[in-house]
């Protein structure tokens, strides 16, 4: 039992940090978000809702400049003000933003937020245990290597979540009569709109490569018989 105590403490610490981050995120969203009532997006919310046999989808605008979509832990969907500004400037279309909302609905549907809590705790255990072991054999850089391994595991799990959310969005967009075209066209724009993914290696990136995401959607199209 004594041998398990450090691991249990790590898990408790990870859980506490996770819940604190969720509390902080909720506070930020509550204080800096407004309901999404954009007249060009309201029809999209209605179409997505009908496709799910639900009332119009409710979404919110997170008043920050970076371009992003967000599924909050409580199930709320957000588009950033930066995305809305791009719509008003003609850089993106209503259907393309509908695909972002559909993608975030995919995260909610698959329970990715809850799953990431478990992943987060597991990564902390990997980081601590592997760091302790490697530190004995490789002083000074053992902890760094453990952090690198944990980060790579986290990135891989995140990429899997993104592919699942993409597939959900594709199915929903097709059912809503919007097709997968807007989803793919937005992916082609995102690197330029958001400034690219930077210099991080692909295996450390939290989101899949754009070409891989489009290829995965096209595999779905072939399976569904969509030209």
From TrEMBL:
Any single Gene Ontology cellular-component annotation: membrane
Keyword match Lipid biosynthesis: no
InterPro entries in alphabetical order: Mito/Outer_Membr_Metalloprot (IPR051156), Peptidase_M48 (IPR001915)
The protein's required cofactors: Zn(2+)
Signal peptide limits: none
Peptidase M48 domain: residues covered: 37-220
Keyword presence, Zinc: yes
Alphabetically ordered keywords of this record: Hydrolase, Metal-binding, Metalloprotease, Protease, Zinc
GO molecular function, one term: metal ion binding
UniProt-listed GO biological process terms: proteolysis involved in protein catabolic process
Entry note: cofactor: Binds 1 zinc ion per subunit.
Assigned protein family: Belongs to the peptidase M48 family.
Protein name: M48 family metalloprotease
